[in-house]
UniProtKB/TrEMBL annotation:
Coiled coil: none
Highest taxon listed in the record's lineage: Eukaryota
Domain F-box residue range list: 1-52
UniProt source species: Rhizophagus irregularis (strain DAOM 197198w) (Glomus intraradices)
SUPFAM superfamilies: F-box domain
Gene3D superfamilies registered for this protein in UniProt: 1.20.1280.50
Residues that span the membrane, as ranges: none
UniProt xrefs under Pfam families: F-box-like (PF12937)
InterPro entries to which the protein is assigned, alphabetical: F-box-like_dom_sf, F-box_dom
Protein name (Swiss-Prot/TrEMBL): F-box domain-containing protein
Length: 219
C-alpha cells in the first residue's frame, strides 16, 4: 500500500500528529490529499486543522472570525511567507493588515488602496459612508489620512446606490464596522504575537519609529 492510497480514516488519524505546516505540505503530495485538506466546508477537515493549530501553535488559541475557514486563518496568521500578491519575501517588508485580510508588501497595499482625501476631493465620496468601511491607519500619526480598500469602496457604492432605505442601511453598516474594528485590532495583535518572536517585534517597532520620524510631515 503506498502512502497516497492510505484510507481516509487512517489519514485523518495521522493528521492528528501533524503541525499545520506539515498539513500544508501534505496538500502538495497529491490531488486526493489536497481535496481532503483544502475542503473549507467539511467539518472533519476544519477539525483536523483546528486540532493541529491548538496542539502546535499554542498562542494561536483564538478561533477564526465568522466566515473564515481554519485553513485561511492559519495561512494568514502563520504559514504564508510571501506577499499574497507578489514575490516579496522579506519579512520586514511584509505586514498583516487584518482590516483587509491581507498579508502583503507596501507596494501591493498601495496599489489596492485609496486614501480618504482622494475619495473626498477627487470622487466626491459621501462623507457618511466612511464609517461604513474598514479603514487602515498605515502611519502611526493619527493625522495621516486613513486608507480604504478600493474593492470595498466599489462594493459599498454599488450596495448604497441599490438600497432604498439608505438611512437604516448606513446605520446597520456603521454598527457592524464598530464591532469589526475591535475584532480587527485583536487579530492584528494576535498575528504579531504568533508570527514574530520578541527580537523581531522589537525590530519592527524600531523600523516603524524610524519611518515615522523620517517621513514626518509638518502640518
Ligand atoms: Zn507585494
Amino acid at each position: 500500500m503506498s502512502f497516497t492510497t492510505i484510507p481516509f480514516e487512517i489519514l485523518i488519524e495521522i493528521c492528528d500528529y501533524l503541525h499545520p505546516s506539515d498539513l500544508y505540505n501534505l496538500t502538495m503530495v497529491c490531488k486526493r490529499y489536497r481535496s481532503l485538506l483544502w475542503d473549507k466546508t467539511s467539518t472533519t477537515t476544519q477539525l483536523i486543522w483546528k486540532s493541529s493549530r491548538k496542539k502546535f501553535i499554542l498562542n494561536l488559541n483564538v478561533d477564526p472570525p465568522e466566515k473564515m475557514s481554519e485553513q485561511e486563518f492559519i495561512w494568514l496568521m502563520l504559514l504564508s511567507n510571501k506577499c499574497m500578491f507578489c514575490d516579496q519575501t522579506d519579512k520586514f517588508e511584509l505586514t498583516m493588515h487584518w482590516e483587509f485580510r491581507m498579508y502583503c508588501c507596501f507596494k501591493c497595499l498601495n496599489e489596492r488602496t485609496i486614501c480618504k482625501l482622494t475619495l473626498l476631493h477627487k470622487y466626491n465620496f459621501p462623507e457618511e459612508l466612511f464609517a461604513c468601511l474598514s479603514q487602515l491607519q498605515k502611519n502611526p500619526n493619527p493625522r495621516d489620512p486613513p486608507l480604504y480598500l478600493m474593492k470595498d469602496v466599489e462594493n459599498l457604492l454599488k450596495q448604497y446606490n441599490y438600497e432604498k432605505d439608505k438611512k437604516t442601511w448606513i446605520k446597520e453598516r456603521q454598527d457592524k464596522i464598530i464591532k469589526l474594528n475591535i475584532e480587527n485590532e485583536q487579530y492584528n495583535t494576535l498575528h504579531d504575537q504568533v508570527r514574530y518572536d520578541h527580537t523581531e517585534r522589537l525590530e519592527r517597532l524600531l523600523r516603524k519609529l524610524h519611518d515615522f520620524y523620517s517621513n514626518n510631515r509638518v502640518y
